[in-house]
Amino acid sequence: MNRGAFVRSISTILGLVACAPGLLPFSAPAQPATTGASGTLTVMSYNLKFGSTNPPNAWPQRRPLMRELIEKVAPDVFGTQEGLYAQLQDIAADLPAFQWIGMGRDGGSRGEFMAVFYRTARLEPLAFDHFWLSDTPEVIGSKTWGPKLARMVTWVKFRDRQTKQEFFFVNTHFDHQVQAAREKSAQLIRERVAAFDPKLPVLLVGDFNAAAGSNKAYVMLTEDKFFTDTWTTARERVNDGIGSFNGFKALQKGGPRIDWILSRGDVAADHIEIVTFSRDGQFPSDHCPVVAKLRLGTIP
Fold first, then answer.
1. How far is CA 15 from the centre of its chain?
2. What 8-state DSSP symbol labels residue 225?
3. 137 has a pLDDT exceeding 70
4. DSSP of 99-161, one letter per residue?
5. How far apart are CA 261 and CA 238, in angstroms?
6. Would you list the domain boundaries of the chain?
7. Mean pLDDT of 10-31
8. Is 259 exposed, middle or buried (0-12, 13-18, 19+ CB in 10 A)?
9. Which of 51, 57, 153, 177 has the least C-beta neighbours within 10 A?
10. Residue of 18 and 253 predicted with greater confidence
11. pLDDT-derived band of residue 192, with 50, 70 and 90 as boundaries?
12. pTM score, two decimals?
């Protein structure tokens, strides 16, 4: 088989497995690795706000701002919440250095995604999967525990091309109304992550719809040091005391931090920031992204 036929065959198989035509995690051409300081990995969690075409804050109006913000932050990997399939395809078109992995929470390309974008020059995906935050995690679109909407997790096992370190990246979006569902979700994620290879670091990102430090779902994830909140351990914090939800209106001084980057295993946080970028009063999303500079596999 010639090389072109081989690549097309692999891409076809992966597209069928991933259940979405935007997913080609292994087919990107080889590129030179990025050169972060001492192997630093830039990680972001960002609720995109689903891509409505209705004003105000319509997606066509926000799209160029989203591109500008992401290019300025220059993440190596980021988890998104609420993105719709067409919206994610727009972001992928705007950011050709990235590929993405995901599935709609209602199956295939339907509903909101917990998409994982990664810089192909830096990261190689080794495996990925999805599960739903319910009593039947393998059932697509399933919901129990009282929420009106299905909630889910997308995870990817990566190899860092620069450092050769492997790690798990887990992305989720907890329910916005039912506290019991948030707590059940936290417990399920703990159980699933506990089954990962214990030698590898884990990064858990998402919109948890819960205040860090006080909500019981946060306590359940971080108690007995199962996960560590990189916000609390980072050597440098920027925009401390600002809530991560802006509502397209204004920054919330003293507001809750509901978007988190948690870690498990050998992870050191050098810097973390709630990015408050806007232009002419327009935010790219109703959330501010959280961005961390992390070192995996090395604790000083």
1. 21
2. G
3. yes
4. EEE--BTTSTT-S-B--EEEETTTEEEEEEEEEESSSSTTSTT---SS-SS--EEEEEEEEET
5. 14
6. 41-296
7. 36
8. buried
9. 177
10. 253
11. very high
12. 0.89
